[in-house]
Every structure is written in C-alpha cells, then in structure tokens.
Amino acid sequence: MSDQGSSGLSLLMSSYDEDEGSECSEDDPFEKVSKSGECLHGNKRTFIDEQTSYGATKKARKVGSVEKEQQQQTPLPIPEGILDMFRKKDSQESLEDHQGRVRTFEHFPGNWALHVYIPMFGPSDLASLIESFVMSLPSDLVPKMHLFPCNELHLSLSRTVPIRHYWINSIVDQLKSAFALKHSFHCILGSPEFYTNDDKTRSFIGLKILSGHKKLSSLVCNVDEVLEEFALPTFYQDPSFHVSIAWCLGDIHEHLMEKHIKQIQDAFDSLVMEMSAADCLAFTPNQVHCRIGNKLFNFPFS
Question: Which entry of 41, 107, 154, 255 is annotated as an active-site residue?
Fold first, then answer.
C-alpha cells in the first residue's frame, strides 16, 4: 500500500479515537474500556457498578440460603395433643380412675387385652343372694368389698393376656372353629372361696363349680392350644373353676383366719336355705365369650 494510503488511514483512525474518547474523562481513575472499544461509563454500567451489583446479589443469595437452611433445621413444635399421648399419667390419678386396680401387664401401644370366659346370666334371686352374703362377711371386710354386677358374672377359661392387634382375626377364627362342635352342659355353684391374682394386688370372693369340671377342662384345653401357637401364657395347671362375685384390693388372706372361713361358709349355707335359692346356683353354659380390648366375640355351642 502507498504512503498516501497509509497516511489517509492513520488520519481516519485518529479521528475515530478522538470521537470516541470525548465521552470519557481522563480524570476518572475507574474509567475502563471494553475489548470492543465501548466506554463503560456515563449512562452505561461501569465496571465497579457491575462488580458491586454482582457482590450484593451473591451476598443476598448466601443470606437467603443460610436462612433457608435454618428454617429446615429448626423443628416445628409438636402439638400438645400428640405429646399427651406419650406422657405417663400420674399414678394416683390412674388408681382413682380404676378404683385402685393395677394392670396385670404394662400397657404397650398396639397391644390388646384378651380374655376368654363363659358368661353367667343368673336370675334375680342370685343377685339378692350374693348381696346378702357379702353383707354377712366380717365387719372389717364389708366396706372393702366391691360387688360385680350380675350381668358381668363369668367363669374364666383363660388368663387376661396381651396380644398384638394383627393377631385378632387369626385367634378369633381358631376359637370359633374350636367351639363350633361343643354342646351345652350343666354346672352348679357351691361353696365360697377366696382367691388372689398373680400379683397379689386384688382378691376375689368366688363361688366354686361343683359339677361340669370335665367339660370345662376340655374348653380350657381348646383355648390353651390357640394361645400356645402365639407363645401366650396358658391357663392354670390345676384350675379352681369358680364365678367371682366380689373383689377388694390387696391380699384378703392376710385378714382371714380359719375361724372366719368356717363362719363365712356357714353364713352362705344358711342364706341359701333361708332364701330357698338352691335353684339359682345352677346354670347351663351354652356359649363362650372372647373379649379383646373393646371388642366382644360370641361363640355359641351347637
């Protein structure tokens, strides 16, 4: 290219640089020029503004992230209603609610109490006989005794044992099959006896069964076979079949002497004769009940 052409090109570039440079002040220490030749000043974003804006945005994002993490880490308060489900009740309040009775086994969520028994639906004469008999007990025992309602009288075929809720259907089905071919039979109530539970926390006055032992033992064997499949406690080895009529707290044997037992037996015999109540001591079992928690299952004999 000729010198004249080079000179013209130099003049053109010089003119371009002066035009563009007129927008920038040489006194501005933060003046910067982009690679494309644009001045980042004036109405356009300067480099420092861009850096400040970026830093502020980054800081805001960081603060927001920290707050979000804190919110995620801070647990929400648990409602009081949920907390109350797992708080142990005051022992005094619990005893008052249940007349001082104590659980035979610790309550555990998902456990249900199972009890198999024969209900006894006695005549009204039986209720009168029972009330008169309990009132004839030694004076220091009468205030402590609690009568069982006549519609709650029963003859136990099992202990009260805890089962898991998902066992209910299987146990009920097996008990139903075991009792399906059983037939009704006759029983007679006899002399009063005194019993205590396994923990010696409650005592009972019961009327012993004088007849029907063989049939009752057969029913107990059927129940035990079902309970054994679930590794549950079976009934007593040599059970004393009876119908409990009243109960009190503690071990009643501590308050009884031999002479008291004879007096109690004589008082019962006299009442039976006086009230002509011998007939009301006989009953005919024709069904078995199984109570599991608040559920009641009925197995009638054929």
Answer: 154
Marked catalytic residue, from 107, 115, 242, 255: 242
Q: What is the pLDDT of residues 1-15, one digit of tens each?
A: 545 555 555 554 555
Query: Can you give the pTM of this predicted structure?
Result: 0.66
> Tokens at residue 139, please?
């004076």
* DSSP category for residue 39: B
**71 C-beta neighbours (distance < 10 Å), count:** 8
- Output DSSP code: residue 289: E
Active site (annotated) includes residue 154: yes
Left, alpha or beta for 288 (phi > 0: left; psi -120 to 50: alpha)? beta
Instruction: Identify the H or E element spanning 21.
Output: helix 3-21
165 in catalytic set: no
* pLDDT 10s digits, 98-128: 455 555 555 557 789 999 999 998 788 899 9
